[in-house]
Amino acid sequence: MTKFKRLSKARGVTIPKDLAAFLNLKAGDAVDLDARGDGTLVISHHVNVCRFCGGAEDVKRFGDVFICPECAEKLHKEVCGA
Fold it and tell me: Are residues 8 and 21 in the same domain?
């Protein structure tokens, strides 16, 4: 499904209601923007990933940082010397 939109003065884009519904995007949802080398922009549902390894499995939030259990264990050992 392709739609034509112009950027606002603030360079924003509004996703049309029918396209958002098709993608199951709701107001307030977080999205990831991926600029590709061929000039395309891919918008996808946001997935929390580990700050250290980039993994997405069992990621937890600690303050403003997302971290996976494996990296959390490594960090604990490094900080606490255990």
Answer: yes
